[in-house]
């Protein structure tokens, strides 16, 4: 795959290096949800699994102090490049979700985690598939975010997380609620099934997750506020 750029609504274009998850439908629905939040100067924003840095750049443009985290070095480099190209100050760190961020809480946490179910129970440790592979139920990373949210989101703060309806959004809402957050599905969008899901259609059909003639996937944004 060659280096490419991905246009997003608003000024500027973002660079996406080979092997880094490029902004897609899930990025756009999460950006729309962010647009309704009061993001501005004095706010601390955390972008978990930043990928290209598209969400981090958008938050920084609105004046927030932004920390972006990703486990992949290429994503870290890509986000740093996009921060430079966008003339935005973003703190970019390599890390495994919230493991290195336990000493700070944030006003807004945004997350586009890996969420594609697949037949392999073990998660990939390298390569582009780390951006989407999430175990048999697609919840390997989602559940970790749910568990970390009460300590990472400060009182009055908000978590915005996007994932597929294949991963049981109602369970996400329940788990966040168990942690003391007021959670709900705030956005829904039906989008064409992408190449990864198409390649797993037979397995997904066997699991009862996807109809044989289904050509669209529902994406949801979970909004959870820590009271």
Describe the structure.
The structure is a single chain. With 227 residues, this protein is an alpha/beta fold. It has a single domain, classed as Rossmann fold, CATH 3.40.50. The chain is built from 7 helices and 9 strands. The strands form 2 sheets. It has a 7-stranded mixed beta sheet with strand order 5-4-3-6-7-9-8, sandwiched between helices. Strands 1-2 form a two-stranded antiparallel ribbon.
Outline of this structure?
The protein has 227 residues and is of the alpha/beta class. It has helices at residues 25-34, 54-61, 73-85, 142-152, 169-178, 195-199, 201-206; strands spanning 4-7, 13-16, 44-48, 65-70, 90-94, 106-111, 153-164, 181-192, 216-226. It has a single domain (10-226), classed as Rossmann fold (3-Layer(aba) Sandwich), CATH 3.40.50.
């Amino acid at each position: 795959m060659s280096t490419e750029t991905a246009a997003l609504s608003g000024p500027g274009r973002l660079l996406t290096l080979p092997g880094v998850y490029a902004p897609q439908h899930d990025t756009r629905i999460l950006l729309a949800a962010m647009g309704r939040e009061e993001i501005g100067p004095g706010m601390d924003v955390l972008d978990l699994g930043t990928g290209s840095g598209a969400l981090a750049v958008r938050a920084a443009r609105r004046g927030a102090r932004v920390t972006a985290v990703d486990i992949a070095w290429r994503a870290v480099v890509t986000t740093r490049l996009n921060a430079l190209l966008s003339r935005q100050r973003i703190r970019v760190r390599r890390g495994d979700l919230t493991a290195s961020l336990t000493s700070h809480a944030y006003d807004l946490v945004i997350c586009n985690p890996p969420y594609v179910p697949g037949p392999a129970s073990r998660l990939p440790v390298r390569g582009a598939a780390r951006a989407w592979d999430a175990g048999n139920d697609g919840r390997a990373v989602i559940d970790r975010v749910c568990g970390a949210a009460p300590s990472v989101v400060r009182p009055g703060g908000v978590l915005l997380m996007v994932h597929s309806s294949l991963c049981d959004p109602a369970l996400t809402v329940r788990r966040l609620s168990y942690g003391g957050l007021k959670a709900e599905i705030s956005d829904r969008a039906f989008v064409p099934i992408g190449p990864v899901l198409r390649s797993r259609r037979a397995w997904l059909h066997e699991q009862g997750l996807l109809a044989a003639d289904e050509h669209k996937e529902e994406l949801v944004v979970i909004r959870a506020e820590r009271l």
